[in-house]
Model the fold of this input.
Amino acid sequence: MHVTPSACEALSKLLARRTTPDRCLRLNTNLGKYRFIVDEPIEHDIVYHFEGRAVLVVSETVARDLWGITVDTTPEDEGKQKLIFRKAKAGEPLEAVRDDAPMVPPEWRAEQHAQLLTEIAEIGRQIQSLRGSTKSMVRDQLQTLEAARQQKWDAIRAIWAGDGGWHKLNGLGAHAAVEQPTTKQPA
Done:
């Protein structure tokens, strides 16, 4: 999820009515619908700032659900702007990351991405070799392979979304995935 500067400004205007300065808006979900409520940031929130103040907080879970979505405003019409959710445009970030999140190196993400694409291609070849068979055992194998392929695509999405948390799902642990190469000190 990404929030444009104009959306942050509009959120700041909404917050002008708040009673205490430490409060901000939270993007919340209720029965599949998103809404803004007045709240305070908590430890694992992604925080958006405008003019040095927190204007919006989003939990990592909600942000993951909105991967590839941008919070923006409509063009000013008669002096009014409306907050909207839209698909991210080319060049816009697809996600937001907490400022203090341990970042996974892009090289590691790219390597994992390439490996998963290779695995997806192999699953695709296996599926093609089984297509056309009518035996129920083959159908079960096809369903298993289709599920495995979908899991690989989900893993690719997780690699690039948020903090690259896929390494946590696959037992690598955060410190193993974010280990940076050390540079030699000059003698």
Summary: Strands lie at 2-3, 24-30, 33-39, 45-50, 53-59, 69-73, 83-87. Helices lie at 5-15, 60-65, 106-130, 136-160, 166-169, 174-177.
